[in-house]
């Protein structure tokens, strides 16, 4: 979805927040476009925008060949583990642990 698509969408839909004394229509339109850009960035650049939980940062930065990621139920172990694999095979590891081309995990 492009920025122009988002502007068209903003024109043809009733926003949940309507202009009022605290916010005018131009400001509202700017906010809608800003949020739309963020959504588009998340769809196309999700790995680059990943902000891991603080306790997982050490896992990502560790250069050991074998690492363990453990924690309690619902503590995002699978998510962060798969993010590490995805960064490795796409050459997007910010710590430079893997080759940029023909990545391996």
UniProtKB/TrEMBL annotation:
Residues 1-11 have a biased composition (Basic and acidic residues). The lineage of its organism: unclassified sequences, metagenomes, ecological metagenomes. Residues 1-20 are annotated as: Disordered. This is Uncharacterized protein. It comes from marine sediment metagenome.
